[in-house]
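Backbone-to-sequence.
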């Protein structure tokens, strides 16, 4: 297979994953926040990327931040005689019951007749022989992976349905990352609210790049930008994901990064209403959903307290750290506790205009939501235990409603500002 995803993968290797606020001002107070005497439970961070060589750092981070368990979404695929799986298992064996690994498909050869049989068998092996507890689908689906004809594989490609059915049969969840923040599709200029992030990694962007901006990037980054190929629009990708969820109601999906649409709280609310098999995590999106009025965000968490899990998108290796995202200056161990503390402040207090956990993702402040203790307990720990309960997920699959293969899917709201619309329509140079 000739893989258009090479550019996407190369960009990831060089790197190491504007909300439109709802109308109305935030309330001046939020009742029923966790009481001062409340003790935070041991935390499950459901969205992490861990390496075997980072075990010592991992041990310290867990102790310093009250993290009892990590879900490692970087367990890898079965390529190269399952070397990645073996390393992930070795890491988990050092932390009995504390590290849970998720496997990913090997996209090489997608579209060939034996691909789906190979990957469903591999998933069974990952679960039954290596102790893996779920599937992770990275954003390369829909943005980079190609089939045997070098065509981009759509998020809702029906050739993947047997893999989703296999996950349901095994009683494991599928964590899926679809698209990226909406601003990644805007023209890349210093006006883009993600400039601190995309200015360092311009090949992450999907929108046009003016010539004068392009000239300021290093030659290697310019080459990666030139190799970009067209991708679907942000709304189209989210609609494709929902078509896939509705076509596979037996499978439990975790739409990571707050349903992949933290810019539109109403859309995520509708997504969860329409799809009882979909959960969300909070990873690397506090800065986005935190821009909505605090009362509305708090009401959202109260409504969906049983289908939301806490995650951070932390990456931990011996000489590598990622705290939600990364930029020109890599974080240090001293930055990890403030990163977690920023999450606790947002979820547990009613502080106003505080820094969100990953300022590189946007230079703005958010209002904390002060969730009640019972809601925090679910999001921080007990919901994760349900997602990792294979018998529970098998029972849900057995009672799932019928598939909806032709269901209409509404698009999210488009928060693109006028300046970005105008610049895109002008057809600036270097657009993919």
């Amino acid at each position: 297979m000739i893989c258009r995803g090479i550019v996407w993968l190369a960009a990831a290797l060089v790197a190491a994953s504007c909300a439109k606020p709802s109308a109305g001002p935030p309330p001046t107070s939020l009742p029923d926040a966790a009481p001062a005497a409340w003790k935070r439970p041991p935390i499950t961070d459901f969205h992490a990327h861990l390496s075997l060589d980072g075990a010592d750092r991992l041990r310290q981070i867990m102790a310093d931040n009250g993290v009892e368990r990590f879900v490692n979404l970087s367990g890898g695929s079965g390529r190269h005689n399952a070397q990645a799986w073996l390393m992930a298992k070795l890491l988990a064996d050092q932390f009995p019951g504390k590290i849970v690994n998720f496997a990913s498909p090997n996209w090489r050869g997608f579209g060939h007749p034996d691909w789906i049989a190979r990957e469903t068998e591999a998933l069974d092996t990952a679960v039954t022989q290596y102790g893996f507890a779920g599937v992770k689908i990275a954003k390369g689906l829909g943005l980079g992976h190609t089939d045997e004809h070098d065509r981009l594989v759509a998020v809702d490609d029906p050739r993947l349905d047997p893999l989703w059915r296999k996950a349901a049969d095994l009683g494991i969840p599928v964590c899926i990352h679809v698209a990226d923040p909406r601003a990644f599709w805007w023209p890349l200029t210093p006006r883009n609210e993600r400039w601190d992030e995309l200015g360092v990694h311009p090949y992450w962007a999907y929108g046009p790049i003016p010539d004068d901006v392009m000239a300021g990037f290093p030659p290697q980054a310019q080459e990666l930008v030139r190799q970009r190929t067209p991708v679907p629009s942000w709304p189209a990708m989210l609609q494709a994901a929902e078509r896939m969820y509705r076509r596979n109601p037996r499978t439990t999906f975790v739409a990571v990064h707050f349903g992949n649409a933290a810019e539109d709280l109403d859309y995520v609310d509708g997504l969860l209403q329409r799809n009882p098999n979909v959960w969300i995590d909070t990873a690397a999106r506090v800065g986005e959903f935190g821009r909505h009025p605090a009362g509305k965000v708090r009401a959202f968490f109260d409504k969906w307290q049983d289908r939301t899990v806490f995650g951070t998108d932390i990456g931990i290796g011996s000489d590598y750290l990622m705290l939600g995202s990364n930029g020109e200056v890599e974080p240090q161990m001293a930055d990890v506790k403030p990163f977690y503390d920023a999450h606790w402040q947002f979820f547990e207090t009613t502080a106003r205009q505080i820094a969100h956990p990953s300022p590189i993702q946007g230079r703005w402040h958010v209002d904390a939501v002060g969730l009640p203790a019972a809601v925090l307990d679910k999001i921080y720990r007990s919901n994760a235990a349900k997602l990792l309960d294979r018998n529970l997920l098998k029972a849900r699959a057995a009672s799932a409603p019928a598939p909806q293969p032709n269901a209409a899917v509404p698009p999210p709201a488009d928060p693109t500002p006028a300046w970005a619309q105008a610049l895109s329509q002008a057809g600036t140079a270097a657009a993919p």
